[in-house]
Write a structure and sequence with these properties.
The protein has 262 residues and is α+β, with helices and mostly antiparallel strands. The chain has helices at residues 17-27, 38-45, 49-61, 79-90, 92-108, 134-137, 151-157, 162-176, 180-197, 234-259, and strands at residues 65-68, 73-76, 111-118, 121-128, 144-146, 200-205, 208-217, 220-229. Strand 1 and strand 2 form a beta hairpin. Helix 7 packs across helix 9 (180-197). It is globular, with a radius of gyration of 19 Å. The termini are far apart.
């Protein structure tokens, strides 16, 4: 995992390398890999074993990691959950978006999500699922999806600078292998679609079509998406759902403007 420079909002390289590396260790923990040893963490972060050993000890002392001597491994400690709760409770965007998203999901029986970027992935902040496929109903807040393959990620990429996009493309290319040229062309097409129509569409999972649109807010860049499980061709789904997505985005922007009025 490459530690990317921060996004366009700040524009400067981080000055505290130890802090950034410690955060990368916390990022390495994902569902299905609760316990990770120093070797696992070194592989996932690209950091040296000596750096991993030093930082994991610090994170245990700080209460962010728990250590199991028998497993010789670490897992996230309970206090980490409080950070997510504080973020959700303090976000005006989430407070305003949730009821609007739920209303659309219930009226159209579709999935509605809100996500934000984290390095080279997108993280769901809110996910309201109305899908007949059980696997797709399990998308929950905190879940990560690939930036380069999803409508969420491609909509976000339409908002970043050329320099930021280039740095991300280098990461995508390394993990995309022989499929990168095709994916890159799809990303460029999606960016053009956002610029011309205000949204982009993608189908990175079988029989699932998703549309997404970026939201530029005072809190940062978010991305709204709607998705359905269907066998219908993508253009038809786009015609049926793009209007709903645009209306939702406009309603959310208007509600946010009212929420921050003095």
């Amino acid at each position: 995992m490459k530690i990317l420079p921060p996004g366009d909002k700040f524009g400067a390289s981080p000055t505290n390398r130890s802090l950034v590396r410690g955060i990368e260790i916390l990022r390495a923990f994902r569902p299905g890999s609760n316990w990770l040893g120093n070797g696992d963490l070194a592989e996932r972060t690209g950091l040296s074993p000596s750096t991993i050993s030093r930082l994991t000890q610090t994170l245990v002392t700080a209460g962010m990691l728990q250590h199991d001597a028998q497993r010789r491994a670490y897992r996230l400690a309970p206090p980490v959950l409080s950070f997510a709760h504080a973020m959700r409770a303090g976000s005006t965007v989430l407070a305003v978006a949730a009821p609007l998203m739920r209303a659309l999901a219930e009226s159209r029986h579709i999935n509605v999500g809100l996500a934000a970027p984290d390095n080279d992935e997108m993280v769901y902040l809110e996910s309201i699922r109305y899908n007949r496929r059980v696997a797709l109903r399990n998308v929950v807040s905190g879940q990560r999806v690939p930036m380069e393959l999803t409508s969420l990620g491609r909509a976000y990429l339409s908002t970043v600078s050329v320099a930021r996009r280039k740095a991300l493309f280098e990461v995508f290319q390394r993990r995309g292998g022989g499929h990168w040229r095709e994916v890159q062309a799809e990303i460029h097409a999606a960016i053009q679609q956002v610029q011309e129509q205000g949204f982009c569409a993608a189908s990175w999972q079988p029989e699932v079509v998703a549309l997404a649109t970026p939201l530029i807010t005072a809190e940062g860049v978010y991305v709204l998406n709607i998705s359905v499980s269907t066998e219908e061709p993508l253009p038809r789904v786009v015609r049926e759902l793009s209007g709903s997505l645009k209306v939702l985005a406009a309603e959310l922007q208007a509600a946010l403007a009212r929420a921050i009025e003095p």
